Amino acid sequence: MSVARENDLVFLMGRDRKSFIVRLQPGAELQTHRGVIRHDDLIDQPLGREVQSHLGYPFLVLEPSTHDLILDLKRTTQIMYPKDIGYVLLKMNVGPGSRVVEAGTGSGGLTLALARAVMPKGRVYSYEVRPDVLNLAAKNLEKLGLRSFVELKERDIEEGFDEVDVDALFLDLRNPWEYLTQAHMALKSGGFFGATLPTTNQVVRLIRALPEHGFSAVEVEELLLRPYKAVPARLRPMDRMVAHTGYLVFARKIEQETDASAVPEEGSLSKSD
Hints:
The chain has 6 helices and 17 strands. With about 270 residues, the chain is of the alpha/beta class.
């Protein structure tokens, strides 16, 4: 049986779907719109049950998912959406023991997901030029107990990365095509490259530059997420969906030179087409 312990993070969700994430401390209380919940009523008690506030309102007590933690982050910058982050982890083969570089830490949404994926023996190296943003990311990671898995570096990546032979490298920058030489030097042979961009003209510049800098197997993808109202009597799509949040670009580092024939001509069809 899973039990909530002192210092654990727990996810509390009311019947109105409003939720809270708290770290359990003896004697502490959570103030909600539906009353007060005492941490002592949760510590050493099973997860997956209901607890009532002092007003008698029920909350589910659960273990928070990575999705929950990302959406709960304090942020001053736009973060990647969980729908994109989960796919990035799969496409770039990030798992326990991986060494991953990211540039554009932001508030740390992708960073925390990478840290949870590579722990306990992997490492995330995250580069950011804005000190205030980097400080916020550090606080977010510390709050979640993930700081020890991440090296935060305040630096312009034009100077290059400190790491070599990393398994994967992801750029969340406005102009990633300007840093492909640095990315190629940091990655291991065959390593995974990824980037996210909001507009098609940026994507075009990146995919033109990738083969010229030693990358192949280039892919461009977009994910759309449509939630449904989970009511058996009237199952239907929600009024809103999570549509365009960014284009995802993936490639692999290669050692041999790639000739122009490796890049599809405009209007040509691949076998998959």
